[in-house]
Specification:
Number of helices: 4
Order of helices and strands: HHHH
Number of domains: 1
Radius of gyration: 13 Å
Strand content: under 5%
Structural class: mainly alpha
Largest sheet: none
Length: about 70
């Protein structure tokens, strides 16, 4: 998968150490969310605390990459 390749060789993609740290933190949290013990239907997870956390982390990543 390209995503894992980028995470593995992040310096090759001009990703800074601080961007990488945020990206790994987000990636781990998102993976735990989608593979976690609570299977969510899209209409069920939108208003959860867990999803709000994922959204905030995603915003931090986007800001770190200046988008």
């Amino acid at each position: 998968m390209l995503r894992k390749q980028i995470l593995k060789s992040y310096k090759k993609y001009a990703i800074t150490d601080s961007q990488y740290a945020l990206l790994i933190k987000f990636h781990t949290a998102f993976e735990l969310f989608i593979d976690g013990p609570k299977p969510y239907l899209p209409e069920d997870f939108i208003n959860t605390v867990e999803w709000e956390t994922i959204r905030k982390m995603a915003k931090e990543v986007v800001e770190a990459f200046q988008y």
